Amino acid sequence: MSLFVAYYRVSTERQGKSGLGLAAQKWRIKEFLTPVDQLIGEFCDVQSGRDDSRVELQRAIQMAKREDARIVIARLDRFSRRVSFIANILEQGIGLVCAEMPNATDFQLHIFAALAQEERRLISERTKAALAEAKRRGVILGANGQNLAAKNRKAADEFAAMLRTKLDADLMRRSCSEIARHLNDAGIMTVTGRRFYPQTVKNYLKRLHAISPSPTKGNLLPGTTS
């Protein structure tokens, strides 16, 4: 019997909530495991593959070391396209198995990671060249980004307005730490599906005051002390 710890990564909160990408990774790992294998843990990071500060991955590594298990991933590109990142994990003595390439050795994983890293570099270069050519021809760039930013601001404003209905006058007189604790205990999450922190509360209350000024301005932004 072999012990495995599954690690998944999705790039955005939307993928994490909808299961887009995550479901495919889980299916691939399920297909890889044999009846005598045991999956003892599952961890998932929701962040860009360029970001190496993977909290859930570190938890997966700790469990794998503690239980003498191997980490199984669905695809190498869901793990990382950086050779240095792959090498760092392997150098920790962690057994890494890719369900898409179950028979790949550590050396082969290095090779595949190097190819993926080079592919990403070439894509980046082609994208920059295409943007430069579009700009030369007078195409206005960034329109989609501006529309997305406007959409995100609208969603944040609407969420801030909804959040105000959850805060009664007594709660508004408390600190941002206490308000954050109250919202977390109530199971309320931010517009991006995260927990509340004192600064998060303060940011939302500032936004709420900006879109709907109140005469009780002094109570709108409580302190951040716990």
Question: What report would you give on this structure?
Answer:
It is a single chain. The chain has 226 residues and is of the alpha/beta class. It has two domains: 3-114, Resolvase, N-terminal catalytic domain (Rossmann fold, 3-Layer(aba) Sandwich); 143-220, no CATH class. It is 57% helix and 11% strand. It has eleven helices and four strands; from the N terminus they run E-H-H-E-H-E-H-H-E-H-H-H-H-H-H. The chain has helices spanning 13-18, 22-32, 55-67, 76-79, 83-91, 106-136, 143-164, 169-172, 176-185, 198-211, 217-220; strands spanning 3-10, 38-46, 70-73, 96-98. A four-stranded parallel β-sheet has the order 2-1-3-4, with helices on both faces.
Short description:
With 226 residues, this protein is α/β, with parallel strands linked by helices.
- Main β-sheet, spatial strand arrangement: 2-1-3-4
What is CATH's topology name of the largest domain? Answer: Rossmann fold
Helix % is 55-70%
List the helices and strands in order: EHHEHEHHEHHHHHH
Number of helices: 11
Radius of gyration from the CA trace? 23 Å
Q: What characteristic shape results from the CA principal axes?
A: flat
Task: Give the count of structural domains.
Answer: 2
CATH H level of the largest domain: which superfamily? Resolvase, N-terminal catalytic domain
Head-to-tail CA distance between termini: 49 Å
The share of residues in extended strands comes to: 5-15%
Low-confidence stretches: 16-20, 215-221
How many strand segments?
A: 4
- CATH top level label of the largest domain: Alpha Beta
Structural class: alpha/beta
| Architecture (CATH level 2) name of the largest domain | 3-Layer(aba) Sandwich
Average of per-residue pLDDT values: 78
For the largest beta-sheet, the strand count, sense and barrel status come to:
4 strands, parallel
